[in-house]
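tool=predict chain=A
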Amino acid sequence: MKVVVTGGTGMIGRKLIDSLLAMPELIDRDGNMAEVTAITAFDVVAPNPPLPDDPRLTIVTGEISDAEAVEALIDDDTDTVFHLAAVVSAQAEEDFDLGMRVNLDGTRITLERCRALGHVPRVVYASSVAAFGGNMPDVINDTVTPNPQTTYGVTKVIGEYLIDDYSRKGFIDGRALRLPTIVVRPGRPNKAASTWASSILREPLAGHSAICPVKEESKMWMLSPRRVVESFRHAQVLDAVAWGPHRVVNLPGVTGSVTESLQALSRAGGNSARARVTFEHDPFIQEIVDGWANTFETARGLEMGFKSDTGLDEIVNVFLEDDLPGQHVYYD
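tool=predict ok
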């Protein structure tokens, strides 16, 4: 069976592809567990550092908003699409047209191509807890209506509704995951408004300084890269009956403040690591972060078998085990 990963050279895409190459089994178009024999990674940039040299893996560079490119990408052999391609939060806020073209138009083009296939592919869509904002309850449960306050969040919620409707019509077998902030992300800082949440842990543990642009009491809803990859795989293999008519789930995660993150940093790296973090307040980032929900009650996700990390110490330890040994390549 063939799997397409859009956004395949990004952090989550890379880790998902690594996992699929190591454990190449998913549910095929007939509902049976089958071997993944072909994976196509699609992104706007080539992978750096390179993805594994594996005969099952093909890398295609292009724009997700280019209908002709997507038509060639998702062919009749495709059983599953992991749709991760997106412009991140702060970048979408700064460049409205880019955010809409990639996150909204790109999603619609991807779904239309899946609709045109001669079978019903499984589509696993990366949404976000940026779906919530504005006047929110202290704890977000599964009954709270999305109210995004950023362009990024708006495009993600529209994508969720498209996943629901295309599934209702029988065009795809869709499932959408509202991702917490993924921490600790390997690599270098990106343009996401949440990039600091990884930087204040990753950089000090790698021996480098980091700047925190938000207040110490600022909180985030977080999940490790290891757990998010597990979640994407779990979402793909779940039967459609488990999803029901609403194909969206809030993923379980961990709430942590900047202060609590820095305490976990000290436990893992000592006072010298903590001393590498300084504060430079950025009102633009603070306003975005303050508008995000940070505490969730994820009964539906837990009942469906999705799992979170046990706490911030586990999140830090995942980085130490999985990514710190290779982090040096991003500084060379």
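The radius of gyration is 19 Å. Residues 2-182+222-250 form a domain with the Rossmann fold fold (CATH 3.40.50.720).
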